[in-house]
Amino acid sequence: ASIYVFHGPNLNLLGTREPQHYGMRTLAEINQEVQGLAEQAGLNVECRQTNHEGDLLDWIQALMTEDFLILNPGAWTHTSYAIRDAISGVKVPTVEVHLSNIHARESFRETSLIAPVCLGQISGLGSEGYNLAMRFAIDYQIRRTK
Ligand code: DQA
């Protein structure tokens, strides 16, 4: 079993993209920190980013129930029934992460189509949200293998 961290569209631009919403840290820096947490706990972790919805669907479909997914679906949060169906179809435990507080911005961001098939959602805590999700994922994976 592994922990996967998947980032959706435009998150490759972190560091320069609207830092007032998404902060100054790059995706590589965020990934390095979450990777460190998982490795300290002795768990496998893999981080990926894509701008192609079909890639993300294929990646989710290849997961196993025993895995754990930390997902920032980017704008697909608000549009993709297909990603939601992939998560519920595979039954992989998932935590949704957003850097910005999607409930405090434009009204189209308030609705997450993904949240109902996730264990929970972290939104508005910046890059720290990924670390918190990783800490949860580590505890969850250790608990379920006991
Ligand atoms: C985001 C929020 C989304 O509304 C937006 O489309 C993104 C990033 C976030 O991390 O705050 O691309 O998922």
Automatic annotation (TrEMBL):
Function statement: Catalyzes a trans-dehydration via an enolate intermediate.
Keywords: Amino-acid biosynthesis, Aromatic amino acid biosynthesis, Lyase
Gene assigned in the entry: yqhS
Catalytic residues in the record: Y22, H98
Residues of the site described as Transition state stabilizer: R17
Name recorded for this polypeptide: 3-dehydroquinate dehydratase
Catalytic activity: 3-dehydroquinate = 3-dehydroshikimate + H2O
Family membership noted in the UniProt record: Belongs to the type-II 3-dehydroquinase family.
Organism: Desulfosporosinus acididurans
Recorded GO MF terms: 3-dehydroquinate dehydratase activity
EC primary class: lyase
GO biological-process terms attached to the record: amino acid biosynthetic process; aromatic amino acid family biosynthetic process; chorismate biosynthetic process; quinate catabolic process
Pathway: Metabolic intermediate biosynthesis; chorismate biosynthesis; chorismate from D-erythrose 4-phosphate and phosphoenolpyruvate: step 3/7
